[in-house]
């Protein structure tokens, strides 16, 4: 046991070096790939080196102002992290050089290993895995994109944001999903602290990265795209331990029979029976998601909403029809939409415009004078819902069509609305979300959601998405508080 603990400690120290490198070497980048890796590393705050022996590729590398060497061993510097983009049959030679050089970690971008089910691919994966394990080299992959550190500008795609810190970690067996989470998530106000695409997981598996992010001070919430683990018992144990200190949102791939076949062809991972998986997720306290959008929405609710453990919703809609639909959406997710207290109704009667509006929950605040956009009235509505002990959380619908018409009459009304909602979010002790649905004005709703995010107000594109994300966040905090 002591030996295993020592190995785990060494892995975590090695991952810290890999996620926070001072020096990076890219082996085998080429013009046909658009110099993908060297261009991606252009934002890296440390030193970048190239290893390439093809004389036809070297001029293009020199144009990028990156020093090139014919071998890792010739680089006159200690190397913390290596990206290997050579053909699979060459990869053992690169791994051997990494071992001799004392490299901290190497990502094998190269595919064509065990996922192909060919004898050569299986044997090559076994070979590089044994070499790395015997030498204590951290091998990421093969068949993956490796590490992304936004703050350091260490990227695996040249359009990923860089230069500022984030607070959300992401672990993915898919390179595409890892990149998409960082890009789409950024548009939703989710900034990655650290992310990793780990592919076939021949040496390091999901549990290793989960342990690392659980202890990472920059990471507050963790997202995952997961296909299968080599050691399921260890994975579920680490997941349970991590979820006790940080939210973990898990998007599982391969939940159908055909999907299970596909994940083996993708990363050579073995499927887990859906019933076993669901039970294990509930016991671990992980948040489950079924798509990239659901993963991003759940993470957004966990990042931006204050922790809450109650299911009773206070809702504000813009029209009677929206009041019905928003109620159905939240009730379908197991959230309650109760009536207000008598005290709250008394407060509402003092100012609520009943023509075209409703006292009931949801509050239909459109009305004939558009009271839902008048700052003083909206503030009163929000205060009443905040003070009413019948409610544990609040959601505000912001119709793009309504707001667009008001903005034509009064361009300053959006800033006024944002000021009111932002002030409420700061004062409130309850979770609060906004729902800016598009209707026929997608560009307006996109702009509104962007402006809401600037004020740290989590916006969602539909009532259903908002309800589902908030329910998942509430369920997590209930788990943390021992309520479920």
How is this structure best described in words?
The protein is of the alpha/beta class. It contains 18 helices and 17 strands. It has a six-stranded parallel beta sheet with strand order 3-2-1-4-5-6. 51% of the residues are buried.
What's the β-strand tally? 17
Q: Unreliable segments (pLDDT under 50, ≥5 consecutive)?
A: none
What share of residues are in beta strands? 5-15%
Shape: elongated
The biggest beta sheet, please?
A: 6 strands, parallel
Q: What's the average pLDDT?
A: 90
Concise overview:
It contains 18 helices and 17 strands. It has 484 residues and is an alpha/beta fold. Helix 8 runs parallel beside helix 10.
Distinctive features:
484 residues; alpha/beta
Helix and strand arrangement:
Blueprint: H1 2-19, E1 23-27, H2 36-40, E2 47-51, H3 58-63, E3 68-69, E4 81-84, H4 91-101, E5 105-108, H5 119-135, E6 138-140, E7 146-148, E8 168-172, H6 175-187, E9 192-197, H7 206-215, E10 221-226, H8 232-243, E11 248-252, H9 257-267, H10 274-284, E12 287-289, H11 292-304, E13 313-317, H12 320-332, H13 342-349, E14 363-364, H14 375-387, E15 393-397, H15 400-409, H16 413-427, E16 432-435, H17 442-454, E17 459-460, H18 463-480
Parallel strand pairs: 1-2, 1-4, 2-3, 4-5, 5-6, 8-9, 8-10, 10-11, 11-12, 13-14, 13-15, 15-16, 16-17
Antiparallel strand pairs: 7-9
């Amino acid at each position: 046991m002591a030996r295993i603990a020592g190995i785990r400690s060494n892995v975590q120290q090695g991952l810290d070096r890999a996620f926070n490198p001072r020096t990076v070497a890219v082996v085998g980048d080429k013009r046909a790939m658009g110099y993908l890796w060297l261009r991606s590393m252009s934002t890296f705050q440390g030193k970048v080196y190239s290893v390439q022996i093809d004389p036809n590729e070297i001029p293009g590398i020199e144009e990028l102002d990156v020093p090139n060497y014919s071998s890792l061993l010739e680089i006159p510097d200690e190397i913390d992290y290596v990206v290997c983009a050579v053909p699979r049959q060459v990869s053992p030679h690169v791994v051997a050089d990494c071992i001799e050089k004392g490299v901290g970690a190497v990502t094998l971008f190269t595919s064509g290993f065990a996922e192909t089910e060919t004898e050569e691919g299986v044997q090559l994966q076994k070979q590089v895995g044994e070499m790395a394990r015997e030498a204590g080299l951290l091998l990421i992959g093969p068949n993956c994109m490796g590490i992304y550190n936004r703050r350091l500008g260490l990227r695996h795609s040249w359009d990923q944001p860089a230069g500022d810190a984030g607070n959300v970690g992401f672990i993915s067996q898919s390179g595409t999903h890892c990149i998409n989470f960082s890009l789409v998530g950024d548009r939703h106000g989710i900034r990655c602290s650290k992310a990793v695409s780990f592919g076939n997981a021949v040496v390091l598996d999901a549990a290793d990265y989960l342990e690392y992010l659980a202890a990472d001070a920059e990471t507050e919430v963790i997202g995952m795209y997961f296909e299968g683990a080599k050691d399921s018992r260890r994975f579920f144990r680490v997941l349970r331990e991590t979820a006790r200190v940080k939210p973990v949102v898990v998007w599982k791939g391969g939940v159908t029979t055909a999907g299970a076949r596909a994940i083996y062809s993708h990363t050579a991972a073995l499927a887990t029976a859906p019933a076993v998986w669901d039970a294990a997720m509930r016991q671990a306290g992980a948040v489950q998601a079924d798509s990239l959008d659901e993963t991003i929405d759940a993470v957004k609710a966990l990042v931006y909403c204050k922790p809450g453990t109650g299911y009773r919703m206070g809702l504000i809609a813009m029209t009677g029809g929206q009041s019905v639909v928003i109620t159905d959406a939240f009730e379908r997710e197991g959230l309650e939409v109760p009536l207000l207290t008598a005290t709250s109704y008394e407060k509402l009667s003092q100012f609520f415009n009943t023509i075209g509006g409703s006292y009931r929950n949801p509050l239909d605040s459109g009305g004939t004078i558009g009271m839902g956009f008048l700052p003083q009235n909206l503030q009163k509505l929000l205060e009443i819902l905040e003070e009413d002990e019948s409610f544990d959380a609040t959601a505000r619908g912001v119709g793009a069509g309504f707001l667009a018409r008001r903005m034509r009459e009064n361009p300053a009304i959006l800033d006024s609305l944002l000021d009111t909602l932002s002030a409420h979010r700061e004062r409130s002790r309850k979770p609060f979300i906004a729902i800016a649905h598009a209707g026929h004005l997608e560009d307006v709703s996109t702009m509104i959601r962007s402006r809401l995010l600037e004020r740290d107000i989590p916006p969602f594109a539909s009532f259903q998405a908002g309800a589902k994300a908030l329910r998942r966040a509430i369920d997590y905090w209930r788990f943390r508080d021992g309520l479920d």
